[in-house]
Amino acid sequence: MLEDISIKQGVLTVSTTAAFAAQWLVPRLDSFHQRHPDIQVVVKTAENIEDLQKDKRIDIAIRYGLFDENIEHATKLATEEIGMFATKQYLKDFPRIEDATLIETKWKNPSLKPVSWRHYFKNKTPKKLNLRSYDQEHHVIQAALAGQGIALVSALLVQTALEQGWLVQHSEGKYIEGLTYYMLTTAQRQNSPKVMLFREWLLDEM
To answer: Is the pLDDT of residue 85 over 50?
Structure first.
């Protein structure tokens, strides 16, 4: 069925990670629909990189990792910044890092650079760390939203939570550079009007 949908000119199928889809893409898709009401966006989540040459169902893949400028038909979207985020109430209840629960992501994909609290603190690691980890970044964000601790996550993925006041940045937190989000397509699709319009929208939004 997905294959039948994707070949229609008015339907754009986007593959991306579950975290990016849930925390950034889906909350912002309405602005794309407002701009281009004739294009329906279908979001497909997967952690592995699909072969777009073989899978004709997918028009665009948005991926996360080290960006290689030599990759064909790839567009760099944004390099994220990693920071410390929690609810205001949690930071009030646990003002000292040593007393807080620190939540991090342990990637399923071993090729991704680790984003850990020990890496974040470098040589200034507190003697006591109360760590909790999940293998999906959006689970880390959900735990922070539930008031369970301080999340070490991408500022890009908590934009909505920050805008709504659900999370705040820790007053002692600094940003460190993370990895890059980039868009992939194919030679056959790169000049498709719907692909070009979605690329333009992504670059405007990010």
So the answer is: yes
State the amino acid at position 76 in one-letter form.
K
Beta-carbon contacts of residue 60 (< 8 Å; ≥ 6 apart): 12, 13, 14, 15, 183, 184, 185, 189, 195, 198, 199
Over its C-alpha atoms, the chain yields an Rg (Å, rounded) of 18
Rounded mean pLDDT, 132-147: 95
Distance of CA 16 to the CA centre of its chain: 9
- Asked if 138 and 18 touch (Cβ cutoff 8 Å), the reply is yes
On whether the CB atoms of residues 44 and 14 are closer than 8 A, the answer is yes
Burial 91-108 (b: 16+ CB within 10 A, else e): beebeebeebbbbbbebe
The model's pTM? 0.81
49, pLDDT greater than 80? no
Query: If you average pLDDT over residues 141-147, what whole number do you get?
Result: 97
DSSP per position, 138-157: HHHHHHHHTTS-EEEEETTT
pLDDT of residue 69: 81
